[in-house]
Amino acid sequence: MKITYYGQSCFMMETAEKSVLFDPFITPNELAKDIDVSSINPDFILISHGHQDHIADAVDIAKRSGAKVVSNFEIISWLEDQGIENGHPMNHGGNWEFEFGKVKYVNAIHSSVLPDGTYGGNPGGFIVESDGYSIYFAGDTALHMDMQLIPQFTNLDLAIMPIGDNFTMGVDDAVVASDFVKCDKVLGVHYDTFPYIEIDHDEAVKKFKEAGKELILLDIGSSMDI
To answer: Residue 116 class from Cβ within 10 Å (0-12 exposed, 13-18 middle, 19+ buried)?
Structure first.
């Protein structure tokens, strides 16, 4: 399985059969100016919540690619009003088997409103089981005790967590979160895009290493294999 990072919390997961894009925010992101959005044609798009920095390119990419969009009920309903007919609504605790694998929509503590001010429902994260791997994308969230439920359902190979602080948990809380989900391999997201969430990369990696864990910080446009 291959993961390509497009900045902020946007990344593509390529499985043996399908490609899955998460939280598409590319064109408004100055740090991602070298990414050719027109070349991104996923089979699926998963959206954790309604904030502009997670959904900005969703409509354009979904219309161009024909991707099925998966999110909470409120966001899928809003996307239908934007002309997106290929949507799949979920809500917290629900599971669904898609062509690429099983998705569970799980809790996140944050806020959620869509770019035009429409209520975006409750924010969430995703557990994705595909190609024999299990991945947790936390979405935008604070550290919360519900994370401790995740190892009761699955053994994670990778946790993708926000580390920028201010709007979400920061590095210190993400170290604790990795304990909660029992996963020592973490891909950091939601950092550096805005002044509020700029981080010291070396210090962040050091804190995870001191805790016996690995923090991966990908350059925008670069990839990793699981």
So the answer is: exposed
Indicate the number of domains in the chain.
1
Whole-structure pTM over 0.90, yes or no? Answer: yes
Domain of 154 in residue numbering reads as 2-225
Residue 63's domain is classified under what CATH number? 3.60.15.10
Residues 63-79 have a mean pLDDT of: 98
| Residue pLDDT, tens place only, 123-139 | 999 999 999 999 999 99
